[in-house]
């Protein structure tokens, strides 16, 4: 491992099927980071259980997500790919950090406020402490940069505050991480309400495309995408539906909106939609094939997550020992 490379850490929860938003907005960009940075990409199963999970589904999705990382082009030899629960230091560091965090700052997290509102009187305590676990994830690896979407910037800010506080209370221990905003950060919006982010938890199935949706489903969902009555293909905020469709092509092909627009002079929404569907299919079909073949080779996958856990455990345990020592625990 090259010590001079900056460290990147990111993770996705295996709590639902991935949408093309997760793929184009996150995973596809991670692929570009692997040569320049020392990357840790985690399947955060400990985070996923802050909402009740069906055990069999959690198992399937955890392996599926790992297979998706690899199929998307994240090289398991260049990067550290691992499953969060395979590194016990995450849970332990989270406890230590919980004892250095305040109820007030956790209660201010907008994601907590939104999610807990829907839980009535049965708010899971882990949901409240979730950002502290996320801070542990990041801080255990001396992370310099964290690629996250807008919805996670508040959690990252909190991780920085907790790190700073620990450093001030004891002595310098943690690197203070920064957000990494990719140059062409693709934010994919709902196909039905294009001013809202595409989300797998949307009630309307037509509003999102799943990474593992078959071609006929992709064609159907794209053809039903909401546009507008203007009828001309433009890239403006007045036409958010059309803009979103153009963004999908841009994200897949690595093009600028102007370059895509050139192809639609004198053409209508039907052509644009058909191109979006076919562009998606040609990107996703080979990916889906690879995911299938990786999942069918259990030993290959096991080998990857075991090696990943070994590398991650080594680094995480070093940081954890430092934390324990500074707090005043007796070394064993
Ligand atoms: N909370 C993140 C999300 O839901 C997932 C996550 C957990 C994460 N730990 C992390 C992201 C550490 C970046 C770094 O999207």
Could you explain how this protein is built, in words?
- Its EC number is 6.1.1.2.
- It is found in: Cytoplasm.
- Helix 3 crosses helix 12, helix 4 crosses helix 7 and helix 10 packs across helix 12.
- A three-stranded parallel β-sheet has the order 1-2-3.
- It has 332 residues and is mainly α.
- The mean pLDDT is 95.
- The protein is built from 13 helices and five strands.
- Tryptophan binds next to strand 1 and helix 7.
Set down the secondary structure blueprint.
Blueprint: E1 7-12, H1 20-31, E2 38-43, H2 45-48, H3 55-71, E3 80-83, H4 89-98, H5 103-107, H6 110-117, H7 125-139, E4 145-147, H8 153-169, E5 178-180, H9 215-223, H10 240-253, H11 257-261, H12 269-296, H13 298-327
Parallel strand pairs: 1-2, 2-3, 4-5
Tryptophan binds next to strand 1 and helix 7.
EC number: 6.1.1.2
Motif ('HIGH' region): 14-22
Keywords: Aminoacyl-tRNA synthetase, ATP-binding, Cytoplasm, Ligase, Nucleotide-binding, Protein biosynthesis
